[in-house]
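Exam revision sheet. Question 4 asks you to relate a sequence to its structure. Input first:
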Amino acid sequence: MVMLEVKDLVVNYGVIQAVKGVSFEINEGEIVTLIGANGAGKTTIVKTISGLLKPKSGQIIYQNENLVRQKASQIVGAGISQVAEGRHIFAGMTVMENLQLGAFLQNNHDEAKKSYEEVFDRFPILKKRRNQDAATLSGGEQQMLAIGRALMIKPKLLLLDEPSMGLSPLFIQEIFAIIKELNDRGTTILLIEQNAKQALAIADRGYVLATGKVQLTGTGSELLANSEVQRVYFGG
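Answer key, structure tokens:
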């Protein structure tokens, strides 16, 4: 069952066309990855899905509703949560306060309490450091906090923008294991990654972007084996 369908999406930054008629879909329960070089339009697409940017044209259909005219808060309320590139945790606020901001649409106290418990069960280090300034966490711990904050609304669709950026190899492995576990537990995921090999290894399907257009598509394993993908992204 299709959860999200992007149709002929065009997004401009002033006179510059960053996304040039991109179409793709995400089925319920999938991990779908968008890979491509810097400037390919990946982050622009994610920001447009989440309502932070408005497209020039095209449609974003989520559970039979067109999102393009909806506010970002309405899109979050519909069950789409984003972990932004660079994490964007709030320095000067504690881990717990950052999580509370993620629960701003959660009006049910019991459900909010359950969300905190689930995040702390998944990320025990966050529970240990819940009263600590979030800025003092390591890069990997900050990424866990950013993911935990996004999970506070129990999203149906999780948008992850460059979750491995700036992390040590050890934390990169851990973050990808977390992404796979979240998906195994039922969360549908759109994954934006420059680490193409890692992303395709866990993805059900992938789309390769170049200069704002979809150049290739296939299953994760098909794209891993594609000679052009290997040449451009793996040096093969």
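Marking note for examiners. The mean pLDDT is 91.
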